[in-house]
Every structure is written in structure tokens, then in C-alpha cells.
User: What shape does this take?
Amino acid sequence: MKYLITGGAGFIGSNIAHQLLSRGEEVRIIDNFSTGRRINIDDIENKVELLDGDIRDFWTVKDAVEGVDYVLHQAALPSVPRSIENPLTSNSVNVDGTLNLLEASRQAGIKRFVMASSSSVYGDTEELPKHEEMWTDPLSPYAVTKLTNEKYCKVFYELYGLETVCLRYFNIFGPRQDPKSEYAAVIPKFINAMLAGKQPVVFGDGEQSRDFTFIDNAVQANLLATTAADAPGKYFNVACGARFTLNELLDMLRSILDCNIQAKYTPPRRGDILHSYADIKRARKDLGYDPKIMFEEGLKKTVKWFSAIFNSQTPAGGINI
Assistant: This one.
């Protein structure tokens, strides 16, 4: 089978590409490298078909889907703060780009379209754990784009028969995640700071909680979503079904790194939610999803990966990848 991975040089997309290649599948990647990084695919670049292109261009997308069986749509402008600063660009990439891909996939007769959505669509609901039948209440332009994309996927399934599946990611982390970006996720950012002997910055009091999900679980969910018989037309939480506060995360990192670096606490950010915790029963039932690597084990693997890079360099400000 042949797979198109949009955003295939990004954190999640590159991990999916490596797994597909290990299974002997054909992989095509499209990425414009605005947030994706060539270092993520350096070791497989001669094994994949790489298209340097922007999903906002329909004709580029039309060429990209030609001859593939499955589309794994990971490309997006991530980050809640980024979307608050620049909602127009977030909408252009995330919504217009997704609509281009859906229409091109429909025209090309793609077998199934799997889209990366986000737990941010739920907003800051009091009810926990968060399940797929809950009311959605996005608090940021980024979250709005993801919810809009889910609606488009549903419409393309119901109107045109294009099999679509949406995966609501809960705080995915692991190897190949970028720690240096202004919009970096919390785990790589904390690890990068602590390896460099610096204070990690916490927005708020650190008691906000997240259902941190190791990358291998997200890869598993994507691959299951391509073939699960009961998946089309639905959206699924992709998580571990457990939650930890940022203060607990810091305690774990101090233990793993054998250090006593304390955090610097700053005011909360706009658009951030307080608690995120997933019910994953639907994914277990309809996808056969079962998280194999839970949070603490995944955190140790992630620290080991970042430490190996850090120890191979002599950076002044942390890991330079």
C-alpha cells in the first residue's frame, strides 16, 4: 500500500513515516518545512518520495494524492499561542489546506483519509474524562480550525462517501519533537531547559493537568484508523486515559535527570485549558487501540533520546536540533 503523509517532516508525521517504512510500505511525504525539519527524515529521505510543497496550493495537493491509497493528514500550524497571535494564517493553513486535501482525495478515489485533530476542541469543560459525545467549546483559533476540519471530514464522508477518520490527540510527546521553537510543547521545552541547567518556565501554578501521550501510541492509532471497519465518519480520543499535573511532570523529570532544578512560575497564558483527561473507550472498541507505552515509561524514553543529542553537542542554550 502507498501512504501520503502530510507534514511528514514534522514530529508526528516523521514518526509515522519511520514506522510505515519498517513495515515495508511505500511512503510519500509532503511538507513545506515551515515547522517540519529535515533532520527528522534525514535517515529515510532516500527511502521516501519527498515533495516540498504547501497544502494551501490545490494543484500541489492534487499531485500529492495521485496514486496513493491512504492519506495521513498531520500537516498544520500547531500551537494555541501562535493561533492567537495570527489567526488568519492558522485558518489558511489548517482549514483551507485540509479542504484542499479532502477535495483532492475525493477526486482521486483515496481509500481512507485520516486527520490529526486535537483535544483542544473540547475547551475547558468541567466534566472529566473527556469523551467524544461531549459538547465542544474551543477556546482558541487553533482549536476552532481543528473542529472545523472535523466537520468537513464528516461532510465529505456523508455527502461523497470519502472514508474519513479524525483523531483527537492529547498532548503527544516523544523523540523528534522540537524543543527550540517559540511554540514548543511543554515536555521537550522542560527537558531542554533542565539539561542545560536552566529553570523550566511554567505558565500558572503548575496544577493544570494533561493526559500526556507517548508518540508510539499516536502512531499506532493512525495505522489502526486506516483499516478499522467501524472507524469511518467518526472521531476518536488518542491518549492514555490518565492525567498528571505539570508539577508532577517536573518531579518526574527531576528524578529521571537526578537534579533539583526548580521551575519559574509565570502568569497563565490566554487560551490554555486547566485540565485535559481522555476517555479512550471508543478508540479501544472501534479502532482496537491500546496504548502500549504509558506516561512514565514514555518520559524516560524521551529524556534518553534528548540526552543523547545533548551529550553529543556542546550547546550554550540547550539542544540544537
